[in-house]
Automatic annotation (TrEMBL):
This is Carbon-nitrogen hydrolase. It comes from the Bacteria. It comes from Paraburkholderia acidicola. PROSITE patterns: CN_HYDROLASE. Keywords: Hydrolase. Residues 174-198 are annotated as: Disordered. Residues 2-264 form the CN hydrolase domain. SUPFAM superfamilies: Carbon-nitrogen hydrolase.
Length: 323
């Protein structure tokens, strides 16, 4: 049994020290509640719901290395409380590149970093190039997908195939539309449709998460952060889903986390794990071939006319009038 918490955290824009201190305070509360893992939103240490138009100078000021002050503050709180913790930040890599990164700190001092695979947050941010799955000291295998990473069906499936039984899915939603709805994140520019935007909102994403959990027989811990200014959040969401797609806990109150006990025995009994076992990987080799070669597999085969019988069909009403 693993007790987890999803925290709809209120960040202060551009104030990593304040945000890290608030995370540490939340971990102290979570420890008293018996929580073993606390999940905070994407970019919760950096703040800013929308960084798309930030000037390079502002982006550089927000960015921190993975061993920077904010992560050190969180890691110290994790070791002090014994509660593992996931937090997001703008990472400045040693080579100068910027990543939307998510770091999970474990009580034994280990840290695991996921770089967002589909980074469309800022033109200077680079997309990650690998899935992130790791084992914890308690024997639980955890995967991470940040923001729009979890929109793509195959990303969640690959994480499950790599053995993850719990998926951490931090998220960050931008400014609300005039109707008050919060849209999902955009894809990288090269993959966006030129047609008018559809009505996908966070409400529909919650349905997708439940479907992803059921398809793959895994728990999903989702934590979303919205725009924050002067510590006043416009909205926030926490969601924990079981391997059958049922919502175990939810919260829409900033600072009031959702917590649930994860019964890991449910994973092997789930339909999703049965479906994973029934896969036919031998059929998937086709996907590694060039598109031109793939298309030939589906070309219609020309059937011989020898021995064929001409058939004709007619649809006749059973109530037709006989003359």
């Amino acid at each position: 049994m693993l007790r987890v918490a999803s925290v709809p955290f209120v960040s202060r824009d551009g104030d990593g020290a304040h945000n890290a201190a608030q995370v540490a305070a939340c971990l102290a509360d979570a420890a008293r509640d018996g929580v073993a893992l606390a999940v905070f939103p994407e970019l919760c240490l950096s703040g800013y719901a929308d960084i798309t138009k930030l000037h390079r100078v502002s982006l550089e000021a927000l960015a921190e290395p993975l061993d920077g002050a904010s992560i050190r503050t969180v890691a110290a709180a994790v070791e002090r409380t014994g509660v593992a913790c996931g937090v997001g930040l703008i990472e400045r890599a040693p080579d100068g590149r910027f990543f939307n990164s998510y770091v999970v700190c474990l009580p034994d001092g280990a840290r695991h970093c996921h770089r967002k695979l589909h980074a469309a947050d800022h033109r200077r941010m680079v997309s990650g190039d690998r899935y992130t799955v790791f084992d914890t000291g308690s024997g639980v295998r955890i995967g991470i997908l940040t923001g729009g990473d979890s929109y793509l069906v195959e990303n969640v499936r690959m994480t499950a195939l790599l053995g993850a039984s719990v998926l951490i899915a931090p998220h960050r939603t931008g400014r609300a539309s005039p109707t008050g709805e919060h849209p999902v994140q955009p894809l990288p520019m090269m993959h966006r449709s030129r047609s008018p935007a559809d009505a996908d909102t966070m409400e529909s994403m919650h349905g997708w998460l439940c479907a992803r959990a059921a398809d793959n027989g895994m728990f999903i811990v989702f934590s979303d952060g919205h725009e924050a200014s002067n510590d006043q959040a416009t909205d926030a969401t926490a969601l924990i889903v079981d391997p059958s797609g049922r919502v175990l806990a939810a919260s829409e109150t900033p600072g009031a986390y959702a917590a649930a006990n994860l019964d890991l025995a449910l994973i092997e009994r789930s339909r999703g794990r049965q479906w994973l076992a029934a896969r036919r990987p031998d059929l998937y080799a086709l996907l590694a071939q060039p598109e031109a070669d793939r298309s030939r597999v589906y070309e219609a085969q020309h059937a011989s006319a020898r021995g064929s019988v001409a058939l004709g069909f007619a649809v006749v009403s059973r109530h037709r009038l006989m003359r």
